[in-house]
Structures are given as C-alpha cells and as structure tokens.
Amino acid sequence: MVNNIFNPQRAFSIGVELEIRLLDKNSLKPKNCSPYIFAHLPDNIKENVHKELLQSMIEIVTPVCDSAKEAADFVSNTLKTVSKIAKGDDIVLASLATHPFETKEDNKIFHDPRYEAFAKELQIVLTNFLISGLHIHIGMPDGMTAIRAYNATIKYMPLFLALSTNSPFEHGEDSGLHSYRTEIFQQLPRSGIPESFESYDDYCELLDQLKETRTIESIRDVWWDVRIHQVFGTVELRICDAFYNYDRLRLIVLFFQALLIYASRHPVKKEFYQITKQNKWNAVRHSLNGNFIDGNSVSSIRDTAKKLVSKIESEGVFKELHCEKDAKALMELLDQEPISQKLKSIYKKSGDFKEVIKSEIIL
Question: Least buried of 52, 288, 315, 340, by fewest C-beta within 10 Å?
Fold first, then answer.
C-alpha cells in the first residue's frame, strides 16, 4: 500500500498530457519522425515532450500547474514551439484521436523495451492501437479524498468523453460513432470502466495483488478510464479523446478540477456497473446528445452536465478557483456541437478525409 504519495500543499493542482500525431504535410499520412522532433527540442521543454508507442506521435506533458489556464497556456506554447520544429522536416501536427485513413503499415513502434514487451504480449491488439488521447491529473491531499474523487469520476466520466469526442472515422469510413477511439482502447486488458472502492486501502489491495502476481509492474500498466496514480498522487481521467482547441481544453480541465473539489465534500453514491457502461456507450455513440441514466431518471448528457455545473457553481467552487465567469462559459461550451459532429459535417460536405484532417492541424 502506498500512502505517502499525496501532497496536501498541492491539493487539486493540475497536470495535462496530450497525445499529438505527426503527419506528412503533403500526403497527411502518419510520418514516423518523432526522433527528429526530439533531436531538435530546446532544453526548456525536453522534459515535457515525451515519446509514445508510435513514432508518428508525441505527448505534451505539462508541469504541475495551479490552474486550468496555466495548463492550457503551457500546452499551447509548447505546441507552437514543436510546430516550428516540425516545419523543418515537412511535418504538421494534428490533434487526431483516430486518423481517418491510416493503416498499421503506415506506422512504426518506437524501439523501447516496454513497448516491445507490450507488442509481444498484446499481438494484433497493439498493432491496431492507432489512437491518441487526453489525460488530466488532479492532485489529491489524502487517500480518502482520492477515493471520493475517483468514485465520482467513474459516474461522471461519460460527460467528459462527450465533451471531447473527436474520432468518428477509421479505416476510410464513418464508424457511425463519435468516439471510435474508445472502442479500440477498451480492447486492452486492464482498460475501460474500473470498479468503485470503499477506501483507498481497498484500492491498494487490488493494485498490490496485480503487482505480486506479476500481472503489472506498476500503475503505469493499468489503463482504466480513471485511476489513482500511485506515483503522482493524483486522480487521472483517461477517457477523453485527443483534441486541441485552447478554450475547450481549458474549460474541460477546469470542469474536472471543480468536480473533484465538489466530490471531496459531497461523496457520490456508488453506481451500478451496467449503468455506467450504458452511459459510456451513449457518449461513444451519440456524444452530448446521448442519454445519461441517473438512478431511475434519464436526461441527455448535455443537460446532466449543465445540472452538474450548476451544482458546483452553487457550492462556490468556481469562485474559490477565481473562475466565476467560466461557469457560464462551460454552459456555452455544452451548447456547442461536439468536435466529432463538426468532422462528420466536413466529410459529408466535401467527401474528402483530407479536408477533415486539415481542420485538425495545429498551426
């Protein structure tokens, strides 16, 4: 059991990890050139741009931040720097959660003992793992708060998926879904919706058993939609599709931070697994327009999120975070169409997946 990971002095601090694809600027196919990017990074961000499974991908990792704005600013500034580097090798950066027409043959796995071990174990599942995501960490002051935040995240994570859906296309066709990335990701073992826990000790008992049986080496090998990170002392939301829009990123991060502060004071009732599974599917299939089951009542994911924002606002959480105006901005974001719907509209109008990709390129 790991109890000394939490830091009350940095409670509810923020970290963001965003996976970005590297594409050839002409063909818009994946370009396996992350070593070129790493070779040209300035010293001040070398620790914040990480390799990923694919050589056509990098990950932007923020330092520990005190606010959603600080985290979004760091991501934005880092992307600008990396984008300038990329131009030197005819590379463009794209915030694609799935690429509309790539194949596994277009990609190379980064030579790394950990990734190569995964490839040996997971076989075809990993070779088809051509996806990108967004992860949000919120620092916890103690184990009890961490479990309350973790359990609340399990219930409400379909809202965050719906706010980030950005992967309607795969293998040259419309999947009919808004987040096909989610369906690919949950093919992995130790992925998807985790179980709720009564205490942090119970959570640790499961992780200890997985380690003792050599199923995992560390928490890094647990890929649930949400986890308590036993190195960073955070609750980590992992369900979101990768995307890049500064305002949407800032507001989603703020919403998650505010929710966990709210949940630390108002524990959420345990949800039946099948209810959470259905709510998650509704977000995958219909994004914000999907149904959200809460007890014996049903409303849209959009309306559920609005009610939750109102509850959090009425508790004064946004005021504590010096973001009172952002409650209204969140409501306005919830009224917008999902990114995935925008992409579907672009393809319906143009019939060209390259036009879809161009809308996702980070300039």
Answer: 315
Fold classification of 8-355 (topology level): Creatine Kinase; Chain A, domain 2 (3.30.590)
pLDDT tens for each residue of 247-273: 999 999 999 999 999 999 999 988 899
pLDDT in tens, 122-139: 787 778 889 999 999 999
Nearest CA to 250 among 134, 156, 171? 134
With a CB cutoff of 8 Å and minimum separation 6, the contacts of 63 are 15, 48, 74
Asked if 100 and 357 count as a contact pair (C-beta separation under 8 A), the reply is yes
Domain locations in the chain as residue ranges? 8-355
Distance CA 80, CA 220 (A): 28
pTM reported for the whole predicted model: 0.96
Q: For residue 118, what pLDDT is reported?
A: 77
